[in-house]
Amino acid sequence: MKRKYSLIMLALLVILSGSCKKFIIEEPQTALTEEQVFKSLDNIEPLVLGLYTSWRNTKKDRGGFVFTLGTDEAQQGAYQVRTDDRQAGLDRYNGFLTASNTALAEQWNSRWPVISAAAKVIYALSLNTEDPERKNRILGDASFIRAALNFEMSQYWGEIPLIDQAKFAEYGTKRQPLTLVYSNIVSDLENAVKYLPASQTDKRKATRGVALALLGKVYMYAPVSSGVRDFVKARDTFKQIVDAGTYQLVDNYADLWNPAKPNSSESIYEFQFNNVYPDNNQTQWQMGSRSLAEIDQYAYFGGYDLMVPTQYCYKDATAGGLWEAGDVRKSESIRYDFTYKGNIPVLNPAFGGDELDPHVKKYEDIRTDGSLSFWLSGKNIFYLRYSDVLLCYAEALNETGATAQAVDLVNTTVRRRAWNNNLPDDKKWSAAMSQQDFRTAIMDERMRELCFEGWRRMDLIRTGKLVDLVKTRNKWTKESGSVQPFHNRYPIPLQEIKQNDDISEADQNPGYSNN
Amino acid sequence: MAPLLMFLALIQGSQLSAQELVTASGKVTGKDDGMSIPGVSVKVKGATTATSTDPDGKFSFKVPTGAILVFSSLGYGSTERPAAAGMNIVLVATTSELQEVTVVGATIKKGDLTGSVSSVGEKVIKEMPVTNINQAIQGRVAGVLVQSNDPRPGGAVSIKVRGNNSIQYGSNPIYVVDGLVIEEALNTINPDDISSIDILKDASATAIYGSRGANGVVLITTKRAKNGDGKIEYNGWYGVQSFNKNIPYLNAQQIADLRIDAYANKYMDDNPTADRQTYINSLLGTNSVAFSQDELGVYRSGQSYNWLDEITRTAIQQNHTATFSKGGPDGAVYVSFNYTDQMGLLKTSNYKRYGGQINLDQKIKPWLKIGTNTNFSRTEESYIDGGVFGIAANANPLLPINDQITYLSWKGIQSTDLYNPIRSLNIDGKGNLNRLLTNNYVVATLIPGLNVRSSIALDVRNQNYYNYIPKSLGQSLRNSTNGSATQKKESWVNWQWDNSISYDKTIGKNSFSGILSFGLSQNNYNYNQVNASGFATDDFSYKYLGGAYLKDQFQLSSDFVTNSLISYVARFNYSYDNKYFATLTGRYDGSSKFGNGNKWGLFPSLSLAWNVANEDFFKNIKAINVLKIRAGYGIAGNQKIDDFAYRSLYRPVFTNGSVTYVSDGRLGNPNLVWEKQKQLNLGLDIAILNNRLTFNADYFLIHNNDLLMRRTLSTTSGFNNTIANVGSLLNQGFDFNINGVILNGKDLKWNMGANISAYKSKITKLYGNVDAIYNYGGFTGVEIQREGNFFLNQPLNSIYTYKFEKIAQQSDMVRVQGIDYGGRTIRPGDIVPVDVNGDKKIDDADRIVVGKKDPKFYGGFFTDVTYKNLTLNAVFNYSYGGKAISGLYEGLLNGTGEYSGHEDELNRWTPANTESNIPRAYTGSGRYSVGETDYAVQNSSYLRMSALTLAYNFTQDFMKKAKLSNLRVYVTGRNLLTVTKYKGYDPEGGDGYPTSKMFVFGINIGL
């Protein structure tokens, strides 16, 4: 009897042990594998949307303004400089601006996964056989994202790795010459122009217009040594945008900063934010005044002084600064008055001392006032606006010999709007302006129009003015006196050198120690 | 050592010289559990004189000189010994139940656990009033490092067997409770229910757990009723706990003086020609840049405020267990109930456990037996917010205690990170856990010696976590949540189905046994969590989520994960004449954690033993009772990595109104394979002088290959990290244990024991051509950390940083000005790092491994002195030669006076105190901070008296009258004494909290 039972049991065991191979196959129940994601357009599309979000997120919070620190328009607040050596190095251009600078490494690290995923999408699409039209649209998205980020990386770091699945064996992850980098950026943007639609209902997505505008910029901003810089091509590209008439300046400069009026006719592309985490941008937390934060955490222009305007940027021309009388952009860009609900804040002597000096105003989000912490500020942030295209177009005209046309363009568009569409004669630029004077004037005009919007460092680098202008206008750079030409590039982060087999210490940008 | 041996020999000699009728006396205990055995028959060989042991296992009667005594008892093998006074008889159990230990899927004889095994019996566990089994074995077992690093009630205790063999995943041993593998939440097991803990340390011992035994196995066997009369027992204790010592913080006036000095130093650096005193006067004036006017008021008043006192308290702990047991020839029943209540040392924190154990076994047919070991428990906890202690301990002593302010401040500047700790006590944090651990078996004996066994084991856990942050708290204001509630519900269902066939056979002097086993196990986990914000009132706490109005801030999350394992095991034992032993084990495991083609691992092991003392040529050597030589070699494995590590995963994320797919940042690695530990163990067991002195020594050599870790990647790969087999580690060392009965008189007995262990690790290989794997972290996640880096040919737990040279003096100024300190300026009184490569530049190349965190050796010792009914027992543990970073101490040497400070600052460098080794006061940046070099790396050696117990066992006479079988009362002091140079809270517990001490009163009653 007992043997019979036991034999049944034994037999059962033998059967079971044979059929158990499947028992140890477990698949994720709540995630897609990489194979699944890249297999179908239905999955690739939300992935690309995710890349737009990741790109947007690089513009958030402290990290979004790292590149604007250490320029002639903005610098760190005194309290920040006093308490964080490494971050202070971004303004001081001293021994803390080295390979181990963590603020820069963070920016470097946050962009590559986006570039790499865009590259994977581009490769996957080349193998995909679904609806060609839809496929090409996604190719436009991915090409644009890769180009925009490669462009940004290369502007600041010079030679960068090119991530291309199809050529991985050849390229690896080593730094590539500028000629190759920029020709890739251009061809990506040409694809984007070709495949992206003229308008998007989903404002997170790029349009043909922004691809074209960026392409124009690339022709202007690319280093001469890349072989891509070409003011004729730039001029023609911008002309194409202007002639198409897709974009118009908004009448009232103030409307650009009104959170109730997002994605206006002037907006070519803006990063979409709101007041709900994780889609807020925390920007005001970095821009506002600590003195206000002391009074009330929900005061909408409070914050912690990461980035404040330089004296040059907030002072009138009569006082050696930037602003001309009657320019409406001054009071829309910069906050001078800190009276809040009748309270005049006092400067705590233990602070850095500049907490009640003029502050950046463009990112104030009135919607948070009284109900939300300024940490939840979440106005959209401009990537490219039409006034930038107009100014770039004017500059390209000037560089190609049409200075008078350039002057007229500035007078009739950007400057006209800056004086409430009624530019006084004494504020009009003279048609007789020389090409060289125009070059100087346009740099100030760009600051007046576009200050704190993220283009300044690139403008300084491409015009070769970084050292001269920053050294005189940025308080901390001036104080340390150590900025040098090699600072036109940032150092390759130490951990990249250590972890990337294709980048060694010898590949560091000149002038920097691997510290 | 020599005097001790002579002393023992002396006692021995005096006993042998007795004449005529002498008194034979002593005590009989069981080998496995060390418990006394009552009712053992003690006869004079060849005569009728006999007695039996009392309920304490003791006997005493007159016998002729030179008589041989025969000890026998049901269920134990008999033994013969020459009569003497104070005999210490150890009987070996023969009935399988007492000698067996349930491993996964099978029961095997304890004696068959060849290889390196350390055991702790019921008697030792009982000695310590603890609620956690790891605490019970702390300092008791060679080669096992037990560290309690969380003084919160119910806090975890970490345990390491033979140092680190895995570097990141599964570096803790697994626990096997009555055959069921559990890896977490050990707190639910009541030490009072445990009859033995066996720690398997080498591959030949852990081989049966091949897939998971790489870092040791802790076998826990719960109690089984003994044959005989039914028994009722009660164990209870009541304790008062308080924090041991705190850091000597600077008080308000000292902080203020430090700050003045710091500001003045900075000012004079920047304005060398200015007048220091004028500046200091301005700091104390109405427009001070260094002080708020309120702070100056406190400074002048001479007061100082201790915020920590506001949130701490003396805590009461209590534990009660009642057990009922009865065993018979056909079955046994053991039932227990337990209640534990621990107040936390921080206000509002609390831990309670209700639990019970049912162990049954019953013969259904002469050839069929069934049984269960089932444990159920519920724990209930109140949490205090994690940041409260640190904020309160480091609060500004110049800031008057105030429960109305939202944030604490320094210099009158509120910090939104410093939530008022008194207000944080209002955060309502609760948790509970329901758990069922059950293992149920049926075993059939087909022919004598051949058993077929099948068991189903379940570990079912349901855990809930609740939290509510009231509206008015800084945590709520800062994030604009208007009150935020969290509910998290987690569920685990782990099951294990094991089947085995075993066979035992003895032919003449040859003994064979073998087991074939097949098992499946699966772990299922799921959770869901809701965070909701916006509450009209705080009154409902976390309980009514439906009332939350900030709908756009709702966050939902959940997940479902399953992983599974298949195991085949074959094990074969052979012994000849109790002299030669061999065990061969093979295990073949498949795990769902690896990709196709890499799921399976083979784990063989072999162990051999030679019991030299049983050889004929050794029979005449009376002084040596045991001499056993062991050798074992085997491979163990580790697969305890994250699920699906072989795949890159993308998950939907809702953002800006639609769903996007986002990578979790981890690169899937299809080439992942099992981590394997090749372990060699050589051991020696010796017992001499009638077993009064025993030694165990083990040497081990472990090659750890294919180490599993999550390493960071260059983000140009598109990912941040990947889990990979990154390298190899060599680990070798020894465990040494000695126990001795020093005095064994009628009234006075003295036992001592000590153990010492050491290990040394070296990384012998890293992936690719790299010679280092760095641990990136910090605020931005990109800084090389001082700990957690791996360097080729260096020990595993290294500290990597700049080397401290000296505190700069005026005479060093010329030299330091020739060196590039990367933006820093060094002035007299500042830290100077060593320019290791002498290139006049302090950069990455000057960072080196400055020390290792592992101790040179560690262990414990104990002493038991019994005089009549009174026993004094002390347990010590120690660790020597390790280094540690104390982030807390480093922070307190910041020298600014703008943050809390350590008393060592009082001796800081000043132009008048240039011999000091404490950097000068300074505010602002631009010099090396204390944490940037190895300046403050600490010596983490310590000696701790972890328990001191005085117990009284009531006399037999008393118990007879009271009709009790056992009555013992005791007082214990835990952690009363620690000797260390470590400057943080505790070299063992780290810097989270100070250690605590406890006074306990307890009672054991048996009926």
Automatic annotation (TrEMBL), chain A:
Cell compartments where the protein resides: Cell outer membrane
Name listed for the protein in its UniProt record: RagB/SusD family nutrient uptake outer membrane protein
In this chain the SusD-like N-terminal domain maps to 97-220
Instruction: Give GO cellular component annotations, separated by semicolons.
Output: cell outer membrane
Q: Would the keyword Signal turn up in this protein's UniProt record?
A: yes
Which family is it part of?
Answer: Belongs to the SusD family.
Give positions of region: Disordered: 480-515
- Name the major location: membrane
Q: Which UniProt keywords apply?
A: Cell outer membrane, Membrane, Signal
Indicate yes or no for the key word Signal.
yes
Show which residues constitute the signal peptide: none
Taxonomic placement: Bacteria, Pseudomonadati, Bacteroidota, Sphingobacteriia, Sphingobacteriales
Q: Which InterPro entries match?
A: SusD-like_N (IPR033985), SusD_RagB_dom (IPR012944), TPR-like_helical_dom_sf (IPR011990)
Q: Pfam families under this entry?
A: SusD-like_3, SusD_RagB
Q: Where is the RagB/SusD domain?
A: 338-512
Polar residues bias locations: 506-515
